[in-house]
Amino acid sequence: MKFFIWILCICMLPSITSCSIKDIKKKVSVEWRLKKITIVADKSLNHGIPVAVDILFIDEQTVLDSLSKMKALEWFSERKDYMRMYKSQLKIMSYEVVPGQIIKDIEIPYSISGDAIAIIIFADYLADGSFSSLIKNKSEARIQLGENDFETSN
């Protein structure tokens, strides 16, 4: 009888303690996932011209490594190609922001940010520059679009 109980315990142990890597990743991302964003544009934004803002939610380190080196100009000119290449590892929220506009408390659904390991923001300014920002470990963020550049904060 003891032998039977011992075998039963061994057989049930994996089902009691099993936890996949994906489950662990989800638990970690839920703790810090980005839940809200506010976008505030100065009245002098981009010399009076609207700015496209893309918020990228990245699920894999290799994709993050590739996109984090990129300038906004490259992202916006080749966005369709990257979206096609990384369609399962990348989710995007896009906005066209006009001078003086405030977009308050944008709720980020779990389906978009839940598996993200990082978030990159690109802004399409007229001037030459990087115009990108990497966000990690924040549950809320504020994007302040200035005349010639932008900043992120929580």
Give a description of the structure.
With 154 residues, the chain is of the alpha+beta class. The chain has one domain: Sandwich (Immunoglobulin-like), CATH 2.60.40. It is globular and about 35 Å long. The termini are far apart. About 12% of the residues have low confidence.
Largest sheet: 4 strands, mixed
**CATH C-level class:** Mainly Beta
Provide the low-confidence segments as ranges.
13-30
Beta-strand share of residues: 25-35%
- Could you say which overall geometry the principal axes of the C-alpha atoms support? globular
CATH architecture annotation name: Sandwich
How many domains in all?
1
What labels describe this entry?
154 residues; alpha+beta; Immunoglobulin-like; four-stranded mixed beta sheet; four-stranded antiparallel beta sheet; 5 helices; 8 strands; 34% helix
Topology, element by element:
Layout (H helix, E strand, L loop, with lengths): L1 H16 L3 H12 L3 E6 L9 E8 L2 H7 L4 H14 L4 E8 L4 E6 L2 H4 L4 E6 L8 E4 L4 E6 L4 E4 L1
Parallel strand pairs: 1-7
Antiparallel strand pairs: 1-4, 2-3, 2-5, 5-6, 7-8
Summarize the structure.
The protein is of the alpha+beta class and 154 residues long. It has five helices and eight strands, in the order ααββααββαββββ. The protein has a single domain (2-153), classed as Immunoglobulin-like, CATH 2.60.40.4150.
